[in-house]
Structures are given as C-alpha cells and as structure tokens.
Task: structure prediction
Amino acid sequence: MGIEFRNVTKTFGGACVVDDLSLEVRNGEFIVLLGPSGCGKTTTLRMLAGLESVTSGDILIDGERVNDVPTQHRDLAMVFQSYALYPHMTIAENIGYPLRIRKLDKTERAARVQRVAKMLEIESLLERKPRQLSGGERQRVALARAIVREPRAYLMDEPLSNLDARLRVQMRGELKRLQHQLGTTTIYVTHDQAEAMTLASRVAVMKKGRLQQFDTPLNIYNTPANRFVAEFVGSPSMNFVDGEIEAGTFVSNSMRIVLNEAHRPAQSRVTIGIRPEHIQVLTAPRDGAIEARVYVTELMGNETFVFLSVGRNRLIARAPAEFRAEVETKVWLRVATEKIHWFDPATGKFLPQRRNGATKDAKP
Result:
C-alpha cells in the first residue's frame, strides 16, 4: 500500500505542530519517522490513522484522499508504546479480539490466532493472562494483535521504549524479520536513532514539525542535509568546530587542518563536522598531526571512546579497545580530511565541496 502526505499541516491552538509535510511512502517500505520529543512525528502518525484531523493538505492511501475517512475504514493497525492488553482475557482472546469485533467466524478466528502466535513464537502463552507475561512477551502479543488483522499498513509508535536494552535489540531484529516476511507497509515512530538506522528502508528526520531529510539510513549518515541531521544521527554524535579557512587551512584557535582544495567549500567562515571514527588518535607526533590532550576515556568493550581537548575545542574519537591513556596525556590526532562535512555556521545548512572548480552537493 502506498501512502502520501501532500503539504500536510497540523496546528493546535495556533501552534504549528506539523508544518507543510510532503512525504511519499512506497508499497512495502519500512519507514521510520525520527526526531526528538515534540518534533511532530507522533502527530503525523495519528493524522494518518485518523485520530487527529488535518488542518491543511491531504493524506492519500493508495491514491485515495482519506482526510475525512473514519479511522475504522482506513484499515490500518496501530501498535503503541503501552501494550494495552485486556487483563481479564487470555492471550488468545487478546490476539483474536479485533477479529471478534469484525464478527469473523470462530473457527477462522482460532486458525488465524494460531498462525500468528506461531510466527511470533508465543504459542505456549495463549492460555495465560497478560499479568503472567514478561514485558517482551507482552510486546509480542501486542504485535500479534495488530498482525492478525492483516491490515493494509502497520503504524507503530515507539513500541519498544518500555523494554530493557537487551530486549530492545532482540525485538528490533524480530520486527525487521517480521516486516520482511509480511511485506506490509510499515511506518514506525521513534526518537532512537539506533532503531531508525537498523530498521528503516528510509528515514524521515523531523525537527519542530518540519521534515529535514528523507533518505536511506546510509545516505543520511554519510551525507546529512544540515547540522541538525548530522548531530542527531550517529552515536557518539558528530564533532563540530567553528573556524575559518585561511590559505587552504582550517583554523580554529590552536587547531589547524591542512585541506585539499577538492575537499573544501567556497566560503571561508565555516563549521566543520567530523565523525568520531574519522579521527585517529596517535601516541607519538607525526607530520600534520594535531596536538591534543586526553580529557577522559570510556572503554566500551570492543572499542574506546576518547574525549579530547584541542585548545578550547572538545572532540570525541573512536579508538581500538586496547587504547589506554591517562587524563591529560598528550596525544596527536589525524583527521581524514576527505570525510569532513561543512556547514554554514549561521544557518546550519550543508555546504557543498569544490570539485575541480565546481561544487558537489549533498544528497537532499
């Protein structure tokens, strides 16, 4: 099922929550709406479901305008942050409830419940009550209740946020596998960029109601449209340093990076963005390396995060797991200049790089 938002705006009491959103979802895609709290992603999902009215613009499902179509006639299944299971019903009754409301034959209802329970590996739980289940098991039941309807699309609003870290990772994998098996269009809301990167076919990054970038996870990570996207996507976050380009060298306080002409923008006042994995930490000086001091280190098991002071600038770098350095130890940094991102310090917009006298734009 294809879904399209055409210049959709939503206001509450004069406050604009979703601002002129245009977005097209192809049939069978797993789309993630990503952004901080209050960015309008849940309101967008609720408008699609028919739980909120559209102030202006149009929402289309398979080419049909649905602004005035009641929720029950849109044939969309929602999975919420809260499991919302009926405590007095068995798990089988909870899963089959949407089919019971539709007055589906009892035999067919039982067969569909069994089929979905097998898919989610909860067959042994069907006779239990919700209070007898763990959080992860309840989440599977909530998913099963949505799947059993066989809707045209699934709408999921932060369904994993109540789970612990281990279960979230496990359920992410289950969701991705499940959506692959079903092939049903899915729109998923989250503030967790790890969920977005691992689950999505494409990610829509939102800020204050406006769409910032809509692209594949890899393109968003490698070619962010602006500083907000660059900072929000990636863990640890991208490093940002304000400075100027003077005679082919980026200068910021005591920090100097010699640039290749092909890898610098046209304007002189800039903000550079550097991913932590594109900074190499050295324990001995080398030509062109930047002198720094270790602020603190964090051992993560398979790698070490090194927080650094370069004059008044603070950076974070990824280092091998075996890297060890005491606080205030002098080190040297090598930056992969071809991986630097450039942003306008006033607007935060991406700045294209030179390419043989021309410029090369980021992917929008």
Q: What stands out?
A: The CA atoms of residues 134 and 163 lie 10 Å apart. The mean pLDDT is 91. The first strand starts at residue 3 and ends at 12. Helices lie at 41-49, 91-101, 106-119, 135-147, 165-182, 193-199, 217-222, 227-232.
